[in-house]
Design brief:
By secondary structure, the chain is mostly beta strands. It is built from no helices and eight strands.
């Protein structure tokens, strides 16, 4: 863990502390598997970055090592998006 912050994406204020990270991961989408970067993480969500992010409301599966989590894209802005 590099550090912690209370993140605000500009969409709504966050209540949970987010841990800053920069890790490579995979995201399974209806269009296939995408390489993503995990930017921050909390108990309620994560901020990801990708060349071509999936659309808002897309059902996805986040994969990093042994961690596999079903999620939904909550928002998207540029190359960043939240699940």
């Amino acid at each position: 863990m590099i550090g912690e912050e209370t993140a605000d994406t500009g969409l709504r204020e966050r209540k949970d502390r987010r841990s800053l990270v920069l890790l490579a991961a995979k995201l399974r989408t209806p269009q296939g598997i995408r390489d993503v970067r995990l930017r921050n993480l909390s108990v309620t969500g994560a901020l990801l970055e990708a060349e071509n992010p999936p659309a808002q409301e897309t059902e996805v599966v986040f994969e990093r090592g042994e961690t596999v989590v079903a999620a939904r894209v909550a928002w998207r802005s540029g190359n960043r998006f939240g699940i």
